[in-house]
Specification:
- This protein has 303 residues and is mainly α.
- It folds into 2 domains: 37 residues; 234 residues, MetI-like (MetI-like fold, Orthogonal Bundle), CATH 1.10.3720.
- It has 13 helices and 2 strands, in the order H-E-E-H-H-H-H-H-H-H-H-H-H-H-H.
- It has a two-stranded antiparallel sheet.
- Helix 2 packs across helix 13 and helix 12 runs antiparallel to helix 13.
- The longest helix is centred in the first third of the chain and has 46 residues.
- The radius of gyration is 25 Å and the shape is flat.
- It starts with a helix and ends with a helix.
């Protein structure tokens, strides 16, 4: 009898402990439901309906018609292609630059503290401001970039008017803005690495390149993979820099998917089709993020 009572008390104790834990999480769950779940379900409902402007919400149920319209629209696929070009070039470039710069500024040399501080500046500049600043820097007539290139006999280049250079310009601006973020992560990771490993490599006569390639990189592979996933989640939302600098031009050379959805929704008032685009992009992002997370876990297990 005593054992039965003790067992019940343990069960009630575990249940009470579980309820207490969930009670602490309840405000966060409610907040997430309000700011995240509701907009997603609202968009999902609109994507399967016609849009009623009088109530600014879902109208008549149309099923998969909106999705069929989107998938048959060549402009949607073109914007996805443009976004893919940006992601394939910008993400590896930013990760490589971020970790390379972090390794250089963590070496022992005078003034590295000032350089670290300067690298934070692009992160605190608003994206729209960054786009405006770079429009002035890369202006084909008055920009200082063409001036300096002219000193060495290059240019002038129409950075925003040439379809072949416009995407490169977006990647340059985005790399300038987000590489410092990766530098901060990489710096923290480098400072956390065991010092005795580098001291042993130095005693064995390894130079800085050997220490980077044979010591630091193998230890940093899991961090690099995790940083890539974090930056990927930010990169797929590219919108404001393009809006401020090229507005998708020239033509549609820099019309990334988020800008295309914005124009379809708030300029052409195709809200139902835009909602379908959002859901398609959301599913693609979730699938790719899951694959990247699985790959990063395998890298962590391997190293």
């Amino acid at each position: 009898m005593t054992q039965v009572i003790a067992g019940k008390r343990r069960r009630y104790g575990r249940l009470g402990d579980l309820l207490v834990r969930w009670s602490f999480m309840l405000p966060t769950i409610v907040l997430l439901m309000a700011v995240l779940a509701y907009p997603i379900f609202y968009t999902l409902e609109i994507s399967f309906s016609s849009f009623d402007m009088s109530i600014f919400g879902a109208g008549e149920w149309v099923g998969w018609d909106n999705y069929e319209t989107v998938l048959q629209d060549y402009r949607f696929w073109d914007s996805l292609r443009v976004t893919l070009i940006y992601l394939v070039i910008a993400l590896p470039l930013q990760v490589a630059l971020g970790f390379g710069i972090a390794f250089l500024i963590n070496a022992e040399w005078g003034g590295r503290g000032l350089i670290r501080a300067l690298f934070i500046i692009p992160m605190v500049v608003a994206p729209v401001v960054a786009g405006g600043i770079w429009r002035m820097i890369l202006d084909p007539l008055w920009g200082i970039m063409n001036y300096f290139l002219g000193l060495v006999g290059l240019g002038p280049f129409d950075w925003f008017g040439d379809p072949n250079l416009a995407m490169a310009t977006i990647i340059i601006i985005d790399t300038w803005r987000w590489t410092p973020f990766i530098v901060l992560i990489a710096t923290a990771a480098l400072l956390a690495l065991p010092k005795d490993v580098f001291e042993a490599a130095k005693i064995d006569g390894a130079n800085w390149w050997a220490m980077l390639w044979s010591v630091a990189l193998p230890l940093l592979v899991p961090i690099i993979a995790a940083t890539f996933v974090i930056r990927w989640l930010g990169a797929v939302k590219l919108f404001d820099i393009v809006l401020a600098s090229t507005y998708g031009g020239p033509g549609k050379a820099t019309s990334v998917i988020n800008l295309f959805i914005y124009e379809e929704a708030f300029r052409s008032f195709h809200f139902a089709e835009s909602a379908a685009m959002v859901m398609i992009v959301l599913v693609l992002t979730m699938v790719l993020t899951g694959l990247f997370l699985r790959g990063s876990r395998k890298l962590e297990e391997s190293f």
